[in-house]
Specification:
Blueprint lengths: L9 H17 L8 E3 L17 E5 L9 E5 L10 H13 L3 E6 L12 H16 L1 H4 L6 E6 L1 H11 L21 E5 L35 E6 L7 H12 L4 E6 L18 H11 L3
Parallel strand pairs: 3-4, 3-5, 5-6, 6-7, 7-8
Antiparallel strand pairs: 1-2, 2-4
Length: 290
């Protein structure tokens, strides 16, 4: 007796449909990597129950054209993580340029009885060490690891860049012997930069541009490219103060301030001149040999 074999095409069709939808909406560069814990289980320093578990996601381009890596810190006032227009879309852009990107979903909300950025700063330093330790595996250059962040993530970018010689946490294992310095930094409308607006809307005229004490600008401070809007509720005076400090230290810096641009534009699309800010950043990276 001959057995009848019944074969259904439905699972194949369903899978192909899902792939088609993903391709249609996201294009050939997909950021669907695993969210990897930043810390070993039970080892998150000063973890508090109301906080999220920090992870990082590696986004590798289908056609690599660079050995650089951009670590992305989304914004969200250290209370939430805006990881789409200030995370996934940014990583997709760099992947399309052939650059590896890493999205960091650092801890939110803010820690109690500590600086608002402490948990995120600890996560940032650990992530840089993780990425540097995996450089050979990821096909990136240990001397071409940079960070890019928005708003609170821009503040975190400045912390990672200008305070890498200040330990944010006590070492927990051998990985913490790896350098956490970054080789370039891209703060995008960074928040909490000036003393007068450390945690509130800025109402000054820019006459006092004294920076908060968060940024020592140590000897490992790297070149930076700053992006800001001149209509931002977090005004561009902070970015101007950073640019001025870098140049007084003879550290290469570039800055773009966009007319009529507010806060939180992220990786926007469209014909507006503001939508090309990431192209300017990529051009700067190429000019600087990153």
């Amino acid at each position: 007796m001959t057995a009848r074999i019944r074969f259904s095409f439905l699972p194949i069709i369903s899978s192909l449909t899902v792939l088609f939808i993903l391709f249609a909406f996201h294009g050939p560069e997909l950021c669907v990597g695993e969210q990897i814990p930043i810390w070993p289980e039970g080892k998150i320093p000063n973890f508090q129950d109301h906080q999220t578990i920090p992870t990082y996601e590696i986004c590798i381009p289908s056609e690599k054209k660079s050995t650089a890596c951009v670590i992305v810190f989304p914004g969200g006032a250290y209370r939430k993580c805006c990881d789409q227009h200030e995370g996934v879309r940014v990583a997709q852009y760099f992947n399309q340029k052939g650059v590896t990107a890493v999205i960091v979903r650092y801890r939110v909300g803010r820690p109690k009885d500590a600086a608002k950025h402490l948990s995120a700063w600890q996560d940032a330093q650990r992530t840089v060490r993780l990425v540097r330790s995996r450089a050979a595996e990821l096909g990136i250059d240990q001397e071409k690891i940079g960070c890019l962040g928005f708003s609170a993530g821009g503040h975190l970018t400045l912390m990672a860049a200008a305070a890498s010689q200040t330990p944010a946490y006590a070492p927990i294992d051998e990985l913490d012997q790896v350098s956490c310095c970054v080789n370039f930094a891209i703060p995008v409308y960074p928040a909490y930069v000036l003393q007068e607006c450390s945690d509130r809307p800025y109402s000054g005229t820019g006459e006092n541009m004294e920076m908060a004490a968060d940024f020592p600008f140590d000897t490992q401070t790297p070149p930076m490219c700053l992006i800001h809007g001149d209509a931002d509720s977090v005004p561009s005076w902070g970015s101007l103060a950073v640019y001025r400090k870098l140049r007084t230290m003879n550290i290469p810096a570039e800055m773009h301030i966009y007319a009529k641009a507010g806060h939180g534009f992220g990786a926007m699309k469209g014909g507006d001149h503001l939508s090309a800010w990431m192209d300017r950043v990529h051009e700067w990276m190429e000019k600087m040999k990153f």
